[in-house]
Design brief:
Chain lengths: 409, 297
């Protein structure tokens, strides 16, 4: 369907050669679910209203499917006008190979250095002092989503943090519920482990391992405790047989499961299902223990094109994406946090407001994509999915995990 | 057409040779060239983009230390052995049954061959639903009254391979049956008559006379099935995505994931080189049996 739309759009662009001075830019991304598509439409609307033409190049199947296609197109000599990546190292080599447009002049003209908050987002776009991407939103993975219905059915209060959640698990199981919903995709296990690291070992250990890359701490007792905790938690998820994250979220929405560790994008699913934060479901950022968020998210990169008009349009689009009006419109639809602190999101719901508060308080760490290469991330995903879905020994998994991290030093 | 001079060996059938040039070039440049390039770059530490920074056997050492790769190889061996034995034996038995001059043979043949007309993606999805505990066989049996019935191979790491195997056999057996049936039809009717005159029972005729006569058919089937097993990818992606955990991973998935998702070309190339090696292990004995044997025969 998407391809068909794209084909129609392309056909139309051939049939009706440039009316006026509108410059067409094809923008590729992997936002295809309901809320995501609505958010992209906001970007497209703003770009079209400014006098250019947005050609939508949505690629279904998530980042893991879309990124190889995007990268092949850029390295294969068929670059698009702009493309989504996650903040961090995913596009680093493309930048180093000189395939991406330098946006430093746009950033300076619009004063990005002062308005983009947290500044680590802009640092992730910076290679050798030059800026190569426009951040558009912040997503944080460290949330525990709880079903109020499941706890009401079991006759116990809704937990307020991870420790209470663990303590309440046997009562949930006795009531015939799955305590923890966890999809089978590798990245979900890795996400759950990352969130637990902060909850169990604390912020300092997380930073020493992931930011300072201290391998002695990584191999130490604090991390061993996290692996032990994860080994206990995987028993809660043993009966969760679903594949995709939104199927797991659906178990929580329908009250079949007690909770799920998932990023703030899960909120969109609760919203679509007509549930209200606080009464139907409960969200605990940082698993309720350490109120902190890691600031991953999405950014747009602009491949170099041999066309001065298009290059000017690319820079206009980059400036537009960071502008306050677009940030508000886009992020409200997407359910993500804006990348600038100087705008007002009054329409945000309770969970989003919790996120905004943490963002304002500065309890922030960089995301896994920002600190580790895709290679290390993939190895850890493979390890974590094996660990969570089998009875692998925590000690062996810990040793392998340290090896994986070392391969990325 | 009295030619005064026989043309040289090189110029004989010139039109045909010219017509074959594009295909020969494609083979040399795309297949052979691509293969050599891949093997060469598997000795580098290329990440997202290919680089000629050679690191010896590092990528291979990491590959064989990776538990996911080792699981993949183990899975492929188990799947391969079962798949080979069952597709060929079941396919042959079906072909023999078809060969008993039964009624509606065309209908049965169509039914048996039908799954082969589906892509592996469709097969995988269909069987994912059939084996899904909440919607498939388990659900149906439970709704008939057997409340404690458990049949959910795709969610059990120890059984997931057999879930894949069911789908693979369902798809592949009809095709093998057709090849075998063609082989059986190629056996001269007189041989059957001679065997009957000598009073040899039918099962003995099959095992002692027919099967040895069908050796080329068996070898061709073996190679077709074996190469299909090594490149097994789409069925697993559609049916289990390699899960639960890493319990149903196969080598082709490792290659794709590391080349594109992990942005580690060197590692992906090393894994695909190992796959090439396993294809060669299958192909070389076949080539020897097919072409080497004829010189003596």
């Amino acid at each position: 369907m998407k391809t068909f739309k794209l084909a129609t759009a392309l056909a139309a662009s051939v049939a009706l050669p440039s009316i006026g001075l509108a410059t067409e830019l094809e923008v590729t991304h992997w936002w295809t679910s309901g809320g995501e598509a609505a958010a992209v439409a906001e970007l497209a609307k703003a770009f079209d209203a400014a006098g250019d033409k947005w050609i939508d190049g949505a690629i279904a199947g998530g980042g893991g499917t879309a990124r190889p296609i995007m990268i092949s197109r850029i390295t294969g000599g068929d670059p698009m006008g702009a493309t989504q990546f996650n903040h961090g190292q995913q596009a680093l080599e493309l930048v180093e190979a000189g395939l991406m447009l330098d946006l430093t002049d746009v950033a300076e003209a619009n004063n990005w250095k002062d308005i983009v908050y947290p500044p680590s987002l802009l640092d992730s776009c910076t290679v050798d002092g030059r800026i190569y991407c426009a951040p558009v939103n912040i997503h944080s993975p460290e949330w525990l989503w709880l079903s109020n219905k499941a706890y009401a059915d079991a006759g116990i209060p809704v937990p307020t943090n991870w420790n209470e959640f663990v303590a309440s698990a046997p009562a949930l199981e006795a009531a015939g519920k799955i305590p923890l919903a966890l999809g089978n995709q590798p990245w979900q296990s890795n996400l759950a482990f990352g969130a637990m690291t902060v909850a169990v070992a604390g912020l300092d250990v997380w930073k020493q391992v992931n930011v300072e890359k201290n391998m002695d701490v990584a191999a130490g007792a604090e991390m061993a405790a996290v692996f032990q905790a994860a080994a206990d938690a995987r028993k809660f998820a043993a009966k969760s047989n679903v594949q995709d994250w939104n199927q797991a979220t659906n178990l929580v929405i329908s009250g079949q499961a007690g909770g799920q560790i998932m990023g703030d994008w899960a909120q969109g699913e609760f919203q679509v299902a007509g549930q209200v934060a606080g009464t139907d479901y409960t969200c605990l950022p940082g698993l309720g223990l350490n109120a902190y968020l890691s600031t991953g998210g999405d950014a747009f990169y602009f491949p170099k094109l041999q066309d001065a008009d298009k290059e000017a349009a690319q820079k206009r689009l980059a400036a537009l994406m960071v502008s306050p009006e677009v940030q508000v419109a886009f992020n409200l639809k997407k359910g993500s946090l804006p990348i600038r602190g100087d705008i007002d999101l009054a329409a945000a719901n309770d969970c989003m407001k919790k996120g905004l508060e943490i963002l304002a308080s500065g309890n922030l760490v960089p995301s896994g994509d920002q600190v580790w290469s895709p290679d290390v991330q993939k190895q850890n995903e493979d390890l974590m999915v094996e660990f969570w879905k089998s009875d692998m020994d925590p000690g062996a998994a810990h040793a392998q995990w340290v090896e994986n991290l070392k391969s990325g030093l | 057409m009295a030619a005064t001079k026989r043309p040289g060996r090189l110029l004989r059938n010139l039109n045909g040779k010219i017509a074959a040039v594009p295909m020969i070039l494609t083979t040399l440049v795309v297949f052979l060239g691509g293969t050599l390039w891949t093997v060469l770059y598997s000795f580098t530490n290329s990440k997202l983009l290919p680089r000629t920074n050679f690191v010896g056997f590092d990528q291979y050492e990491r590959l064989w230390a990776s538990s996911r790769w080792n699981t993949s190889i183990e899975n492929l061996l188990i799947y391969g052995v079962f798949s080979l034995v069952f597709t060929i034996s079941v396919g042959f038995v079906l072909a023999v049954l078809m060969d008993q001059k039964i009624r509606f043979e065309d209908t049965f043949r169509t039914i048996m061959l039908y799954p082969f007309a589906l892509s592996f993606i469709v097969t995988g999805l269909v069987w994912q639903w059939i084996l899904n505990p909440e919607f498939g066989i388990q659900h149906i049996v439970r709704s008939m009254g057997w409340e404690s019935f458990v049949f959910s191979p795709l969610t059990n790491p120890d059984l997931v391979l057999y879930g894949l195997l069911i789908a693979g056999l369902w798809q592949g057996t009809g095709f093998v049956m057709c090849i075998m049936l063609a082989g059986l039809r190629g056996i001269d009717e007189d041989i059957w008559k001679a065997a009957r005159v000598d009073g040899i029972p039918a099962w003995k005729t099959y095992t002692i006379i027919i099967i040895p006569m069908m050796r080329p058919v068996f070898i061709t089937t073996l190679v077709l099935v074996a190469s299909g097993i090594i490149k097994l990818y789409d069925l697993v992606v559609a049916q289990t995505s390699g899960g639960p955990g890493t319990a149903s991973q196969v080598p082709a998935m490792y290659v794709y994931d590391y080349m594109f998702q992990a942005q580690n070309l060197g590692q992906g190339f090393a894994a695909s080189t190992m796959m090439l090696l396993s294809v060669l292990i299958v192909l070389i004995p076949w080539a020897y049996l097919e072409f080497g044997g004829k010189k003596h025969g």
